[in-house]
């Protein structure tokens, strides 16, 4: 196990009906807030009205910014940041999936600094992100997730797409930990079967990335990671089939928060190559993040089966019921079991199913390596994924 530091400062309020406390919690932090949400779902499901009502009943003044698209764009958060700054908002609340929560973090940053958000995302072609990261200052943030997937509700990162250059990159910093998150699993009842499955795959991927690429010896983290993967594997298909199954929704939601809050990966190191390869797909084609991860995972796992079969074998044995004692056989069987799990949630797909053009594979691979490689010319993984390797993974996933 490597040495590590871990900070988990976000206060977590979890459970059925807790969304009604949004106003009381916000009032402890601010008199005037910006409520950041997506363009459709929170209004349609009525959660937006519930949160607005709770805020107003607590005497909190609200500036609503309901313009966040899935895979949020820099220009959208820059506009939100300007409005929040001019209106004198003291707290930014992200209500929705990862997209509105990430956008809230970016708006909190831009509102404080006045810098455009593009300057904060990794890989940004201006090269200025190194000076500005990590983000030390931002307005206080609160999150209310409505979808179990990203873990953005309690971590200090976010992802933005800069449309002008098709870059999708991460930003992070100590100031971006939400002060408080209200996690009410009932808010996820209305998530479609497709997005429920995509979210479960995102949780799984957050867990397996460092587990497969990082330190061999991290025994507590192994058990934590495997337990959380099992929770996602068991409860994803239940939530897809029974959207109002509270315990399945609660398990998925809590697993998604814990997967990316730092504890599973602390002391492990490792990298996020499938995320790097996926972010370029969703930047170019605006596809769902979790769906893109499901598409790329089998081809990536084939490389892991060659490079570190014992790690994939261990995951298969502990999380997917694989029995083979030989690591090579167990690793191959794990890939089959993972595909079966994807199939059980109708998320075993190929890039061609989503209308991705074959001639974009090379430019996307070049972009993924540029952003994910940070000047090294490859994305670190169980092997160095250079442009040739990334194109090969894209081809096999097509
Ligand atoms: O469009 P809106 O109205 O927002 O509706 C959303 C959206 O269409 C809908 N939805 C959300 N909650 C719902 C609901 N529909 C019905 N009922 C509900 N309760 O679902 C669609 C997807 O929402 P989105 O927020 O885009 O999904 P997700 O949570 O998967 O977030 C994806 C974004 O997060 C980034 C991704 O790259 C992507 O940009 N990530 C953020 C991370 C982080 N901050 O730590 C880590 C992740 O690896 C990821 O990269
Ligand atoms: Zn993810």
Automatic annotation (TrEMBL):
Enzyme Commission number(s) from the entry: 1.1.1.-
GO molecular function: oxidoreductase activity
Pfam families (UniProt xref): ADH_Fe_C, Fe-ADH
Record InterPro entries: ADH_Fe/GldA (IPR001670), ADH_Fe_C (IPR056798), BDH-like (IPR044731)
UniProt keyword annotation of Oxidoreductase present: yes
Fe-containing alcohol dehydrogenase-like C-terminal domain sequence ranges: 196-398
EC top class, as a word: oxidoreductase
Keywords: Oxidoreductase
Domain Alcohol dehydrogenase iron-type/glycerol dehydrogenase GldA, residue spans: 9-185
PANTHER family: ALCOHOL DEHYDROGENASE YQHD
Designated name of the protein: Iron-containing alcohol dehydrogenase
Organism the protein comes from: Tumebacillus lipolyticus
């Amino acid at each position: 196990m490597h040495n590590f530091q871990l900070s988990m400062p976000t206060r977590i309020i979890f459970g059925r009906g807790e969304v009604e406390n949004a106003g009381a919690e916000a009032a402890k932090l601010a008199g005037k807030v910006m409520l950041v949400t997506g363009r459709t779902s929170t209004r349609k499901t009525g959660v937006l009205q519930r949160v607005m009502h709770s805020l107003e009943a607590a005497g909190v003044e609200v500036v609503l910014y309901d313009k966040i698209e899935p895979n949020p764009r820099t220009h959208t958060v820059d506009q939100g940041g300007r409005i929040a700054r001019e209106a004198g908002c003291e707290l930014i609340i992200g209500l929705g999936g990862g997209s509105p929560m990430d956008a809230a973090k970016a708006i909190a940053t831009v509102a404080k600094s006045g810098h455009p958000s593009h300057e904060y995302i990794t890989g940004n072609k201006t090269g200025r992100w190194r000076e500005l990261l990590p983000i030390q200052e931002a307005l206080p943030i609160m999150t209310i997730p409505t979808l179990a997937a990203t873990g953005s509700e309690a971590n200090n990162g976010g992802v933005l797409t800069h449309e002008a250059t098709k870059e999708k990159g991460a930003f992070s910093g100590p100031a971006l930990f939400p002060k408080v998150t209200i996690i009410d699993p009932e808010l996820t009842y209305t998530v479609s079967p497709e997005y429920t499955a995509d979210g479960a795959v995102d949780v799984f991927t957050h867990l397996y990335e460092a587990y497969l690429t990082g330190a061999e010896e991290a025994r507590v983290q192994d058990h934590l990671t495997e337990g959380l993967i099992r929770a996602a594997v068991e409860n994803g298909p239940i939530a897809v089939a029974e959207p109002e199954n509270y315990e399945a929704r609660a398990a998925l939601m809590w697993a998604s928060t814990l997967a990316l809050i730092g504890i599973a990966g602390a002391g492990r190191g490792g990298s996020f190559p499938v995320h790097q390869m996926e972010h370029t797909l969703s930047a170019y084609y605006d596809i769902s993040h979790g769906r893109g991860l499901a598409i790329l995972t089998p081809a990536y796992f084939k490389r892991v089966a060659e490079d570190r079969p014992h790690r994939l074998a261990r995951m298969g044995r502990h999380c997917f019921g694989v029995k083979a004692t030989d690591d090579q056989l167990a690793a191959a069987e794990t890939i089959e079991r993972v595909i079966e799990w994807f199939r059980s949630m109708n998320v075993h797909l190929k890039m061609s199913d989503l209308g991705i053009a074959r001639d974009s594979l090379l430019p996307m691979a070049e972009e993924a390596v540029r952003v994910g490689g940070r000047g090294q010319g490859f994305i670190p993984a169980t092997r160095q994924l250079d442009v040739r390797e990334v194109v090969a993974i894209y081809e096999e996933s097509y």
